[in-house]
UniProtKB/TrEMBL annotation:
Substrate binds at K67, Y124, R128, S132, R192, L193, H194. FMN binds at residues 62-67, 77-78, 83-84, 106, 141-142, 186, 196. Belongs to the pyridoxamine 5'-phosphate oxidase family. Its EC number is 1.4.3.5. This is Pyridoxine/pyridoxamine 5'-phosphate oxidase. The gene is pdxH. Residues 42-157 form the Pyridoxamine 5'-phosphate oxidase N-terminal domain. PANTHER family: PYRIDOXINE-5'-PHOSPHATE OXIDASE (PTHR10851:SF0), PYRIDOXINE-5-PHOSPHATE OXIDASE (PTHR10851). It comes from Chryseobacterium terrae. Binds 1 FMN per subunit.
Length: 213
């Protein structure tokens, strides 16, 4: 066993105080996201963990790339028949988590999810590199497959089939928009007295409060 008791870090890069934050959490997210995007130590600022609840009652978390955000919510794309897709269709909820250690910051977002329109999914699908389009069409995401060769053979077949034509978007692949009802911003601070500011949606307005670390 390895003792990790002494693996500690002093958090002192920034602060999060009420007089300096935005009234709307999406605007606060935008400011922090821009900071993360411009930080050389962060290679993928739009990488986020998406947690959904599985049938056995245990949450399941995976990394997904955020592709767009608006005042309405956060958009990502996936296979609707995947484990995350099936969980979302059952509960219509998920928790999104951004962690940017280079800034000593986290954002936790609880949201209701719904599919975006088919034409929006079409637009994004056809903006992707053709290899990514083929990969989405090839993979029966989350299903058991015999081996790696199974995928590679299917990819070769589709490459030939669509060599000179457009790859159609699979009907079971598209986008979700996560409409937040709670967003927490976490800023590391010295002595583990971290700043935690939480926005809670109440009657279409955002209530701002501070949580103890």
């Amino acid at each position: 066993m390895e003792n990790l008791h002494d693996k500690r870090k002093i958090y002192e890069k920034s602060q999060l105080i009420e007089t300096e934050i935005k009234e709307n959490p999406i605007e606060q997210f935008r400011d922090w996201f821009l900071d993360a995007s411009e930080n050389p130590s962060i290679s993928e600022a739009n990488a986020m963990a998406v947690s959904t609840l599985e049938e056995d009652g245990c949450p399941r978390t995976r990394m997904v790339l955020l592709k767009e955000y608006t005042y309405e919510g956060f958009i990502f794309y996936t296979n609707y028949d995947s484990r995350k897709g099936k969980s979302i269709e059952k509960t219509h909820k998920a928790c999104l988590h951004f962690f940017w250690p280079g800034l000593e910051r986290q954002i936790i977002i609880k949201a209701n999810l719904e599919k975006i329109s088919a034409n929006l999914s079409d637009g994004y699908f056809h903006s992707r590199p053709k290899g990514s389009q083929l990969g989405a069409a090839v993979s029966p995401q989350s299903q058991e497959i015999p081996d790696r060769e199974f995928l590679e053979n299917k990819l070769k077949d589709l490459e030939k089939e669509y060599e000179n034509s457009e790859v159609p978007r699979p009907e079971n692949w598209g986008g979700y928009i996560a409409k937040p009802y709670e967003i927490e911003f976490w800023q590391g601070r010295p002595n583990r007295l971290h700043d935690r500011i939480i926005y809670t949606l109440e009657n279409f307005d955002w209530r701002i409060s501070r949580l103890a670390p």
